[in-house]
Design the sequence.
């Protein structure tokens, strides 16, 4: 089954889309960011949410969206986090947190679960990142620090397997260094795989044409351009939403 | 979202001329006869059909062949006691045949569904069916490089489906259905019965709903003669 | 799980085994041949019986042998042929004949079924043949006749997948031509894969040492040697069973 | 024939030093803790362990690591909030680590069980985890050649087993169990309950008995403290 990304925010299907600058407010907080990701997941999609912040996107999916969550440890139809008596050690998500089962769920083993991911059957996955390059290269599994213990999990499989890879991260590191970069300096997870980048300051579309700013939050395209070392395009035009 | 319909015509709508169609079944067990009949009425032609056999008797796949809609068969075992339709077409040079060992046939479709680019198979080494194929010795054993077989459409038969598209099968009629469901862009399943979401035990679902685009409910279908 | 072949007829584990010549009788009929194959299948084996004559081996497996039959169309624990009310179009064997299900059976799809075969998990498969070469090459899927419609099914997968490949055939074609040959002239099914050859005139072990005659029926090793164009070894010694 | 035992020591008897041991579980879900404890008592050492994680807390796989029995871990995700045992061993240089993307880990074990010599995987292309590996462009997409991971032994946990060795699992504790069962020479499963032959529905068996050599019946096991 194929679903299409939200046409309102998809320049491929909405040629009149304009870049929107939200200048009358500050950057997005984590909750607002998760809500924006959720907004862009089409109804009925099959979706994998990565460990950590991406997991919170589930809380913002509207009731009746028909979105079906996949967890790499062998389940479609995953429900919300389990609490109290619901907690079952045999039912966890990819982050090993107890979760619940929704009607219409199914269980399968790990090779079948990753066949589903790698075979291109999931519509969207949402991942965190250390860095994303302007070509859509993703670095999210290893800081490359010599004393760090590397762990990759299913990140590389999701990066190349899902039809659309959404990344959530802050646009700048704590020291102000941009995390949207010309070339990743951290070890790579996948090449040219990120299609959407959701950050606290802006939402970017990534593709063969490079980096397009879809929306800004508490900043402008100009300001971003001055702080990022990548070429920024805008949608057909620009609009200040205040 | 999975389309659930009682109309065989709606179930097979849009299948294009020249499509590669994966058709489930091992002989008649698991063969989606109602979908095939609908495909014959729908009219798509110049098809490449991937199925274990090349039709039995005069119904199902044999009827599709008899209607002249199939340019090429990819299968493991065309010659059977009741494969007279295929036999004549083949002898008259009116159909192409690609013969694939049954395990390679199943595994090549699995590879298509699982995103595997190609795999080294131990089957067929040194035989005419490996001629012209790349080989490699791995761990002292010879292997043949085999590529995925991907379908534009899969037509399969399952036992019960729910409204989300989850499927369970029955006995050896399961055969190629679950594999083909993963290997096609659009998977269409005919089922004996459709149940509400939540009625299938999640532990026993064989084909998860992500693989199923349309379900034809045979219990409700108006099957034309 | 690994089972061992019958030590009484396995020269690898029974160095005192002797070639037995049954000269006081005629060749084996099809039923006797099937019984001898059944005799050599160790209790508890997982076994695939090919289409046609090999299917009849099941009728000769003793009750309580614990042999579990695999059918390539997705089942372990296949029972005898179905009759009358037992017939279920959804339950057939590899020859598409109606069969039954035994307690402890399981069903699986085709890729899993062939993974089981090709991964070396079946102890024995029994196949028919047009020809077997002295190296154990098998030809059983195609006569090579220009007007024949080729059909291979699972033969090539079984030939390379089962731990032990037993072949059942007549030793000579109707015109007297031997079917145990120096080199197969028919299109091959698999290379060096046959370990035991059961014929109406003799039972042969095939392996790296060539062809060893284990038993003869209605003939002698000498007579066979004169009619076959392959070198015949005998077990440690020879014994005339009359 | 499958051995069914209530004695954890009998279940793990004969595992040799230097073995490659596949250990099921995703975190603690599906981890065969009783078999691992028995393996610690059994004493086999110099092991290569293949498991998704590298131990949680101080029990199960973490305890095996703490006992100094593991020379090398092959896993996808060693670093967790509660992986302190592995973390110290690794930082002290007392354990080798082969990091494998989770999908390649699962598929490489499937390949071992399915007789696939090697396969081209789309995962990891252009990353440090593909360094030194053969690559090939197939259909415009780059792939990395990956080889099977075969175990001498698999230790897994299932939910219910029958006396022939057929297994069913429970929820996401299924995870690696069915794949590892196919990939090892000897597969040993601990199950919560053993039932008589015929009590499991043949349609719902996940691991057919051909893959299971020994079953430890936890409901009857005398587990030492």
Sequence:
């Amino acid at each position: 089954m194929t679903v299409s990304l939200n046409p309102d925010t998809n320049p491929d299907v909405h040629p009149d889309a304009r870049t929107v600058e939200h200048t009358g407010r500050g950057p997005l907080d984590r909750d607002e960011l998760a809500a924006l990701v959720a907004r862009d997941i089409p109804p009925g999609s099959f979706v994998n949410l990565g460990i950590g912040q991406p997991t919170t996107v589930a809380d913002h999916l509207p009731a009746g969206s028909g979105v079906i969550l996949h967890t790499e440890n062998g389940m479609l139809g995953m429900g919300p986090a389990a609490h109290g008596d619901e907690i079952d050690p045999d039912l966890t998500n990819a982050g090993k947190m107890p979760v619940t089962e929704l009607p219409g769920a199914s269980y399968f083993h790990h090779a079948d679960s990753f066949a589903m991911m790698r075979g291109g059957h999931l519509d969207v996955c949402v991942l965190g990142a250390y860095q994303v390059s302007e070509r859509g290269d993703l670095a999210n599994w290893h800081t490359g620090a010599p004393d760090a213990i590397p762990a990759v999990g299913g990140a590389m499989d999701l990066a190349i397997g899902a039809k659309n890879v959404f990344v959530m991260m802050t646009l700048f590191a704590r020291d102000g260094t941009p995390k949207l970069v010309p070339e990743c300096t951290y070890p790579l997870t996948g090449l040219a795989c990120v299609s959407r980048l959701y950050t606290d300051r802006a939402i970017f579309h990534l593709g063969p044409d490079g980096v397009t700013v879809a929306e800004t939050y508490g900043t402008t395209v100009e300001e971003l351009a001055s702080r990022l070392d990548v070429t920024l395009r805008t949608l057909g035009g620009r609009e200040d939403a205040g | 979202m999975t389309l659930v319909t009682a109309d065989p015509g709606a179930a097979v709508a849009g299948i294009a001329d020249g499509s590669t169609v994966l058709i489930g079944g091992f002989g008649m067990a698991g063969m989606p006869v109602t979908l095939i009949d609908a495909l014959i009425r729908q009219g798509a032609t110049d098809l490449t059909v991937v199925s274990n056999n090349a039709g039995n008797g005069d119904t199902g796949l044999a009827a599709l062949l008899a209607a002249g809609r199939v340019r090429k068969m990819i299968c493991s075992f065309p010659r059977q006691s009741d494969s007279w339709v295929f036999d004549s077409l083949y002898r008259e040079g009116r159909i192409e045949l690609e013969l694939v060992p049954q395990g390679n046939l199943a595994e090549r479709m699995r590879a298509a569904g699982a995103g595997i680019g190609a795999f080294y198979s131990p089957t067929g080494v040194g035989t005419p069916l490996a001629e012209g194929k790349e080989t490699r010795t791995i761990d002292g054993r010879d292997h043949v490089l085999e590529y995925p077989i991907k379908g534009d459409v899969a037509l399969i038969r399952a036992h019960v489906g729910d409204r989300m598209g989850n499927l369970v099968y029955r006995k050896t009629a399961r055969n190629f259905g679950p594999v083909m469901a993963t290997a096609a862009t659009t998977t269409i399943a005919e089922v004996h019965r459709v149940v509400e979401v939540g009625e299938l035990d999640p532990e026993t679902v064989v084909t998860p709903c992500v693989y199923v685009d349309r379900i034809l409910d045979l219990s409700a279908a108006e099957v034309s003669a």
The mean pLDDT of chain D is 96.
